[in-house]
Design brief:
261 residues; alpha/beta; Rossmann fold; 6-stranded mixed β-sheet; 4-stranded antiparallel β-sheet; 39% helix; binds adenosine-5'-triphosphate; nucleotide-binding; branched-chain amino acid transmembrane transporter activity; High-affinity branched-chain amino acid transport ATP-binding protein LivF; ATP-binding
């Protein structure tokens, strides 16, 4: 199990666009933490910073610190972060579209011995029978839900201790969202994973995580237990449109009235 600590992080893109403005977050070993917030709040930026991927997006850390199990990874490369056991599953379902399901899994297993790779691949197929059925098909032809399962399978082949998952529910039917959350919960329990779940679908996140952070315009607007978040009228109205009068239109009106940062 591993802990992750982000302290007062400031991230800038292209030297001028301030995407994170002093964000702090912690995840204890084995804890599941949700990162919620509207479009452009900075959620993916935080994922990229944690995973050592910022420079690929012309971004860099201006200030602050990220530690994994006490080790400073603020400016570490993606390879170094991965070697320390942190695996990101990025948004947009970045599978190798022209490789088969099996080839995708094999590519993800490059650090493992052949025997270990075989054992975990078997585990992945047992967990996701649909992937086994479609193992010889190009990953680009899989449905969104199947691609998400493939990404989870690929992540398992990296033997992670911390899993950072960016918007796994995006574009999925509600029943598949439930399925993805269920599988993430199982993996977390069985493998003792520390989990950071980025979601715009707050309801889905609430079903899985113990604590949530709500980002808004590059800052943490709310931090607390899932229970407190769910009983906080502001968080519920602002992010879920689940206020007294309810409805999306009302939520939008409320949102216009309210300033968080
Ligand atoms: N590569 C980039 N270059 C310049 N600006 C960027 C880049 N990536 C993100 N940004 C900006 O940084 C801010 C935070 O974006 P980010 O993608 O982290 O938000 P997000 O909360 O993940 O949003 P979404 O839910 O839409 O993915 C936004 O203002 C965005 O326009």
């Amino acid at each position: 199990m591993a802990s992750l600590n982000v302290e007062n992080l400031k991230v800038v893109y292209r030297g001028v666009i301030l995407a994170l403005n002093g964000v702090s977050l912690r995840a204890e070993p084995g804890e599941a933490v949700g990162l919620l917030g509207p479009n452009g709040a900075g959620k993916s930026t935080l994922v990229r910073a944690i995973a050592g991927l910022l420079h690929q997006y012309e971004g860099r850390v201006l200030d602050g610190k990220i530690t994994l199990n006490g080790q400073d990874i603020t400016h570490a490369s993606a390879l170094k972060v991965a070697a320390l056991g942190l695996t990101p599953i990025l948004e947009g379902r970045p599978v190798f579209r022209y490789l088969t399901v099996l080839e995708n899994l094999t590519a993800a297993a490059h650090k493992l011995s052949p025997a270990r790779a075989r054992a975990i691949t078997e585990e992945v197929f047992a967990r996701f029978p649909r992937l086994y059925e479609r193992r010889r098909e190009q990953a680009g032809y899989l449905s969104g839900g199947e691609q998400q399962m493939l990404l989870l399978g690929m992540a398992l082949l990296t033997e992670p201790r911390v899993l950072v998952v960016d918007e796994p529910s995006l574009g999925l039917a509600p029943i598949l969202v439930e399925e993805v959350m269920r599988v993430l919960g199982e993996l977390r329990r069985e493998k003792g994973l520390t989990l950071i779940l980025v979601e715009q679908n707050a309801r889905a996140a609430f079903s899985l995580v113990e604590r949530v952070y709500v980002l808004e315009q590059g800052r943490v607007a709310f931090e607390g237990s899932t229970q407190v978040a769910q009983s906080d009228a502001d968080v519920m109205e602002f992010y879920l449109g689940a206020g007294a009068s309810g409805g999306f239109a009302e939520a939008k009106r409320y949102r216009r009235r309210k300033r968080w940062v």
